[in-house]
Amino acid sequence: MKRELAGGPCSVARAADVLGDAWALLILRDCMHGVKRFDEFQRSLQVARNTLSDRLGKLVDAGVLTKEFYQDNPPRYEYLLTEMGRDLFPVLSAILAWGDKWLDGALGAPVTLHHETCGHDLEPEVVCRHCKQPVTDHDVQFCVGPGYPGVVTSGTDFRHRLAPAPGADGGRPHAHLRAS
Amino acid sequence: MQPSSLEAVERKSFAGMHCSVAQCLEAVGEWWSMLIVRDAFLGVTRFDEFQQRLGISRNILNQRLAHLAAHGVLQRTRYSEHPPRYEYRLTVKGRDLWPVLTAMRQWGDAYAAPDGPPLQLVHKSCGQIADAVMTCSGCGERLTGRDVRAVPGPGDLDDLAQAAGTTR
Question: Model ipTM?
Answer without folding.
Answer: 0.83
